């Protein structure tokens, strides 16, 4: 593979896109679970994805366990959170930046119990399977979403809605897709065997790569974190297999060995639509994708949204380093 990190841009838009991007008009991020880079790279299907797109060989999660990694890609920080407990976070996130620029977005969650009438804020679906978990749904942790039924039901949806959106040529500009606990590998990866997750991904992704509804679309296939059992004490690299593929990717069989994390992915999405930044780690890291090989400047701090970020003195726990209040609803951390 040669080393390159650039995507060509087409001027065409899909039927539903409201905002043309610099590199892509749609982005679909698929977050899988708890798999080391070396575990994924042995799979023939993962190798085929790299052969058709850009493999980020040194892309990593930012910490362990799951929740802070999901928050990192949605908000540019972990808010100092070190567990998978329930939090109501009074802070702005990528959804706020997107809406300010009329860029449409949805989080598609497999087995999510909520619908267009109510916002599901509990931890999971019933035992024994518990296929949906709140810790894998970053947007439900933000109080400006989970206390606003209309906003929540419009943007956090069951994954079945994606089929209808595809059929209606109405996929949002920004999609965050979360498989259930079996399909994402969390509860199905055993002793390094990632075949269940890999088979799911192939069946999910392949039909979409050639679907006209995903014109000029970037698919980001990645993981929240490496296998925590192999990274005790956060001393390892936390590298995860990450591939950029789709109709917006005009190169193939490319490897980029630049150091990236979820913060870089967030910054790339912000730069694509000129959203500005959240003023956190997203504002100080480079973009993954450079236009014709030349990266754009870091996203500017979006001061017009700064007033949305406030504190709540009555909450239980305050993350002082960010001046953001976090209410711990569930004390017990669920790390596995």
UniProtKB/TrEMBL annotation:
InterPro entries: Alkaline_phosphatase_core_sf, Phosphoesterase
Gene3D superfamilies: Alkaline Phosphatase, subunit A
Pfam families cross-referenced by the UniProt entry: Phosphoesterase
One Gene Ontology term from the biological process aspect of the record: phospholipid catabolic process
Coiled-coil positions: none
Sequence intervals crossing the membrane: none
Name of the protein described by the UniProt record: Phosphoesterase family-domain-containing protein
Species this protein is from: Jimgerdemannia flammicorona
């Amino acid at each position: 593979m040669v080393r390159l990190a650039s995507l060509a841009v087409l001027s065409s838009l899909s039927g539903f896109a409201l905002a043309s991007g610099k590199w892509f008009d749609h982005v679909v991020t698929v977050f899988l679970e708890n798999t080391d880079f070396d575990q994924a790279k042995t799979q023939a299907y993962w190798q085929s994805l790299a052969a058709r797109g850009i493999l980020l060989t040194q892309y990593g999660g930012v910490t362990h366990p799951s929740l802070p990694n999901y928050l990192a890609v949605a908000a540019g920080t972990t808010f100092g959170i070190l567990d998978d407990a329930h939090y109501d976070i009074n802070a702005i996130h990528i959804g706020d930046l997107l809406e300010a620029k009329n860029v449409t977005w949805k989080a598609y969650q497999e087995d999510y119990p909520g619908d267009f009438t109510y916002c599901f804020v509990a931890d999971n679906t019933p035992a024994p399977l518990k296929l949906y978990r709140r810790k894998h749904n970053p947007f439900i942790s933000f109080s400006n979403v989970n206390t606003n039924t209309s906003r929540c039901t419009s943007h956090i949806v069951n994954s079945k809605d994606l089929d209808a959106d595809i059929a209606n040529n109405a996929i949002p500009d920004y999609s965050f897709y979360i498989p259930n606990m079996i399909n994402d590998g969390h509860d199905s990866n055993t002793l390094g065997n990632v075949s269940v997750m890999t088979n799911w991904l192939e069946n999910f992704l392949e039909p979409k790569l050639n679907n006209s509804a995903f014109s000029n679309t970037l698919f980001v296939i990645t993981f929240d974190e490496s296998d925590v059992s192999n990274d005790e004490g956060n001393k390892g690299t936390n590298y995860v297999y990450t591939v950029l593929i789709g109709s917006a990717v005009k190169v193939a069989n490319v490897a980029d060995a630049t150091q990236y994390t979820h913060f870089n992915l967030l910054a790339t999405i912000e730069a694509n639509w000129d959203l500005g930044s959240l003023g956190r780690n997203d504002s100080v890291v480079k973009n993954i994708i450079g236009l014709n090989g030349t990266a754009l400047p870091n996203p500017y701090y979006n001061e017009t949204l700064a007033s949305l970020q406030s504190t709540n003195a009555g909450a239980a726990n305050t993350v002082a380093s960010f001046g953001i209040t976090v209410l711990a609803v569930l004390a017990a951390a669920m790390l596995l």
